[in-house]
Amino acid sequence: MQGSFIWYELMSADTAAATAFYGAVVGWEAKPQGEPHGDYTIFSVPGFEMGVAGMMAINPDMACSGARPGWIGYIAANDVDATVAEIVATGGRLLKGPEDIPGGIGRFAVVNDPHGAVFCLFRPNMPEGPLPASAAPGSQGTFGWRELYAGNREADFAFYSRLFGWEKSLAVDMGDMGIYQCFDLKGQGLGGMMTATPDMGPPTWNYYINVDGIEAAAARVAAAGGKVLHGPQEVPGGSFILNCLDREGALFSLASMTR
């Protein structure tokens, strides 16, 4: 499990609007959790109990501390505290935690890499018995790719590789935009990274949600009040992508095997 992406979380200042937006665009159902989890919502693919992502409301205190709408990914860590110590020792920074999630969910920490891209570490407490049914990988509403717009691609790959055992796979030369480096974990494709160009803003992670048909999805983004930044574009492997902003300006992306 170490080094795999196991959860995704949206920080939202308008959870009702975000629920409506992602329901319209990718078809998620929303399940508010209530205490002891506060104003937290689980998104799931219709027909499946297992969640694919969560949403946390940005309260006034969080907003005053600089929290803004956006997505964050959780990377599995067998020992959260030890991984935090290694991150800090190699140029990253601890932003929150480590601490236990109420209700016995697990232990987490919020950190950033040496160039400022934020992510979470998570060690879940696995329940007894089988897990709830989940949607098949690649189906609409599941996450399928992760992308780092890095401060420095080579330096940041070395940082993550030391922590999580990621390995380089396909490298794509994008001309003036540099090299796009795909990476695997134990032979399974996880994502890609590139050095961020000046117009991309600060280093950040971006997450791709699978959809059935990219052009119809682009129309749903616009109709729901979001914005398509780039695409549809065909990428190596034959899939099609969109880079988008939701109604609150949070970056996310969509991917489909069909136009």
From TrEMBL:
SUPFAM superfamilies for the chain: Glyoxalase/Bleomycin resistance protein/Dihydroxybiphenyl dioxygenase (SSF54593)
PANTHER family: GB|AAF24581.1, GLYOXALASE-RELATED
VOC domain boundaries: 4-124, 142-257
Organism of origin: Allorhizobium borbori
Top-rank lineage group of the source organism: Bacteria
Record protein name field: VOC domain-containing protein
